[in-house]
Amino acid sequence: MTDTDPLLSALAGVVVDLVRSLDECDDDVVDPDYAVKLLEGASWTLTRLPREQRDRLLRVLSDLAEAEPSPQQREFLASFPFATGLTEQPSD
């Protein structure tokens, strides 16, 4: 990992897991309109980070994706920056 702060890695992982859970849960578990509101709020907050902090978060997300053994979770982690508006292009 390029970032040695375990708190940042843990928090980034929690945010990704929460976003994925909201994104994939059934409509009878969480109201879809409420889930969208929460997802948009998370994206808005992350895109308001100062550039240096956004870049740091992007590095941590990339490191988490590289270390992830599950192909589905690795793909979700890799797509997370684009899906949340942290980057303008999907990563390769």
Average of pLDDT: 91
Name the helicity range: over 70%
Q: What's the Cα radius of gyration?
A: 13 Å
Strand content: under 5%
What summary fits the major beta sheet?
none
Terminal residue distance? 19 Å
Number of strands: 0
In DSSP terms (H or I, runs of 4 or more residues), the helix count works out at 4
Structural class of the helices, strands and pairings? mainly alpha
Low-confidence stretches: none
What sequence of helices (H) and strands (E) makes up the elements?
HHHH
Shape: globular
Question: What do these coordinates show?
Answer:
- With 92 residues, this protein is an all-alpha fold.
- 71% of the residues lie in helices and 0% in strands.
- The chain has four helices and no strands.
- Helix 1 (6-24) runs antiparallel to helix 2, helix 1 packs across helix 3 and helix 3 (51-67) packs antiparallel against helix 4 (71-83).
- The longest helix has 19 residues, at 6-24.
- The chain is globular, with a radius of gyration of 13 Å.
Write the layout of secondary structure elements.
Elements: H1 6-24, H2 32-47, H3 51-67, H4 71-83
Helix pairs in contact: 1-2, 1-3, 3-4
